[in-house]
Amino acid sequence: MRRRLVILGATGSIGASTLRVVAAHPDRFEVVGLAAGRDAAGLQALAARFGARRLALAAPNALGIPHGEAALADLAADPEADLVVMAIAGMAGYAPTLAAIEAGHDVALATKEVLVMAGEEVMRRRAAKGVRILPLDSEHSAIFQALQGEAYAPACVRRGGEAPAEGRVAEAILTASGGPFLGRGDLDWARVTVAEALAHPRWAMGPKVTVDSATMMNKGLELIEAIHLFGLRPDQLRVWVHPQSVVHSLVRFRDGALLAQLAVPDMALPIQYALTWPDRAGHGPAAALSLADMQGLTFAEPDLGRFPCLRLVLEALPKGAWTHPILTLADEVAVRAFLAGRLRADRIAAVIEECLAAGPAPFDAIVRRAESIVARFASP
Q1: How many angstroms separate the CA atoms of 7 and 5, rounded?
Q2: Residue 376 is assigned to a structural domain of this protein
Q3: Inter-axis angle of helices 217-230 and 112-129, to 10 degrees?
Q4: Which of 76, 332, 359, 360 could disulfide-link 100, Cβ–Cβ 3.0 to 4.6 Å?
Q5: Is 58:87 a contact under the CB 8 Å cutoff?
């Protein structure tokens, strides 16, 4: 029987990779619903190609497609779905994720802001409903695969009866490509342009995630995501820079063993693993990694002086979960302003730092605070 999918974020890079997997396995998957941000024509074209019966958009449109947060949440809760792929960028993925969980659907999650903002609530609801959160990020997929065992299970899929996998972990190491500025000796964040920040050397991603990768804020948010997905403590998590993007993450167990997951840098592979879990597909749409691809792999600790956004996350994590929504919401407001040409790149970290210094606040208050700081920095 084919697994029935709803894909939110269908016209983005994760959506495109997901549909590559679907096209490679027509006997395993059926697309019942698709959603996107504002590309109504693109969404309709995908629906015609993959036979999706229900559509939704975040933005109003002239084609009569249901739109807005309620439409996205309603599609995520579609009773025909078996698995909801959540690839909507930023805060917009929060309500649909909760709607999918409440409907009893497993969620393949790429929208890291959902867990960063409200990881404790999302994981509590996941456990109460008995559904699974399957990670789509290559780094979290690598950790997820390393934690699989007959006698124990990762927190994100544990339903009871299995022993906690996290008790066997000494440390989990997330790898980072380092982005476009890793080897740039004359790096001056005040002079970094939007085009430079969007020129990622390894991955094709949406603009917000690409800028976060350039500042290494993306890796900081992934640390928070790993805390919730896998039940890990901040002191069990590390970041190492690995420019080749072949080793996607590693887990060192308490017995001394170090397990790593290696693959070519292609998002179709972790997506396919999530969609077929607990099985593995017999083939895939991405090239296989050869031994020749593993020559000259390098690793280094990140330079926190060059990447202040990552430093801010590492300093904030021991202070508690109240810092998590501030980190992601302040970053989202600042990056949006940077992409719009209203904020210099060096002030992205400054916005986050000021928001953290102001202390805990509700989500909407954090956003208003960040917008006020951006307005102050953007004024002549």
Answers
A1: 6
A2: no
A3: 10
A4: 76
A5: no
Number of domains in the chain: 2
Beta bridge partners of 4: 30
User: Same domain, yes or no, for 213 and 273?
Assistant: no
Burial class (CB in 10 A: 0-12, 13-18, 19+), 4: middle
User: In terms of domains, do 156 and 303 share one?
Assistant: yes
Which 8-state DSSP code applies to residue 160?
S
238 in the same domain as 116: no
Q: Which two tokens stand for residue 179?
A: 């982005």
Instruction: Look up residue 348 and give its amino acid.
Output: I
- 138-167, pLDDT tens digit by residue? 999 999 999 998 889 999 999 877 899 999
Amino acid found at 341: G
Q: What are phi and psi of 166, to 5 degrees?
A: -65, -25
Helix axes 138-146, 217-230, angle to 10 degrees: 30
CA–CA dist 285, 21 (Å, integer): 6
CA distance 2 to 5: 9
Please provide the distance, in angstroms rounded to a whole number, between the alpha carbons at the two ends of the chain. Answer: 61
CA pair distance 359, 200, nearest whole angstrom: 33
In the structure encoding, which two tokens stand for residue 304, read together? Answer: 């926190």
> Domain of 55: which CATH number?
3.40.50.720
Residue 25 structure tokens: 């396995």
Q: Are residues 130 and 37 in the same domain?
A: yes
Distance of CA 7 to the CA centre of its chain: 15
Q: For residue 2, what pLDDT is reported? A: 94
Look up the domain containing 295 and give its range: 137-266+290-318
| CA dist list (Å): 372 to 142, 334, 365 | 39, 11, 10
Mean pLDDT across the chain: 93
Cα–Cα distance measured from residue 27 to residue 349, given in angstroms and rounded to the nearest whole number: 47
**Which amino acid type is present at position 375?**
A
Question: Mean pLDDT lowest for which of 13-22, 90-99, 234-243, 327-336?
Answer: 90-99
Instruction: Tell me the residue ranges of DSSP E strands in the chain.
Output: 3-8, 29-36, 54-57, 83-86, 106-109, 133-135, 152-153, 163-164, 169-176, 237-241, 247-253, 258-262
Residues 6+ apart with CB under 8 A from 209: 89, 218
